[in-house]
Amino acid sequence: MPELPEVETLRRQMEKALVGRSVKSVDVRFGRKIFPSAAALVRAASGAKFKAFGRRAKLLLAHLSNGWTIVTHLKMTGSYLLKKERETPTKHTHVVFHLDKKEQLWFEDVRKFGFLKLVKTADLEKVLFEKEGYGPEPLDPSFTFKRFKMCVTARPHKKIKPLLLDQGCIAGIGNIYADEACWYAKVHPERTVGSLSEKELKGVYDGAVKALCASVKRLGSSSDNYRDLYGEKGGNVPHLWVYNREGKPCRRCGASLKKMWVASRGAHYCPVCQKPPRSAK
Ligand SMILES: [Zn+2]
After folding, report:
1. Class of domain 145-280
2. Poorest-confidence range of 77-91, 170-184, 214-228?
3. 103 is catalytic
């Protein structure tokens, strides 16, 4: 599933390639995941220009010149692809934005969990972000260690790994970067927040920020079928510390990495560097 670095990569590429470009027309080929309706999207986007591209948590925001924003959640397999006008959409292309300069923008989604939502740009905060209760953005300068500590220590009985996945605590972190942050901090994913020392908490914070920044620099992790605007894979997977590396040597101590289930998600960790909580021994 695309997480913060993957959505941010797409946002940056779209910002560079599409700001100021006109949408001539819109073809909806599968409209069940468009809200309030496919017809509303066609009406709002046809004839509009892309004004800017934003991101909140894992949501991609395409701001149009006419006061509307197309909010996209890519979920498991959603993607945007920039194509030449002559190229033929696939069976997974749900929306085609016909652009100027003989190009088109496809929204594709094999598993159909992703969605597009049309929202007035001025109402985004109120109708969407506040309602979703998103926590701070980890790449924002205001996301300091103090802020992080405040977010997590308010829930001392929660296990650290599922808490990192909680979008209300920190926005945009998913399974990959939560595992990376715990490994970096030498903290077992099942440790409760209340059991973590100041140093361990700082390690989780530093690890999360480092892992996210490194991945953004390398255009994201294509550990599943994530592709960028040009259909290319991100370059971060070979650099991941633990995610999807079970059975391979820990990059710190050489021990064989393991995978376990924590709050019904796969968690990758080093059994030597990341000691289990005392009660679980
Ligand atoms: Zn290790």
Report:
1. mainly alpha
2. 214-228
3. no
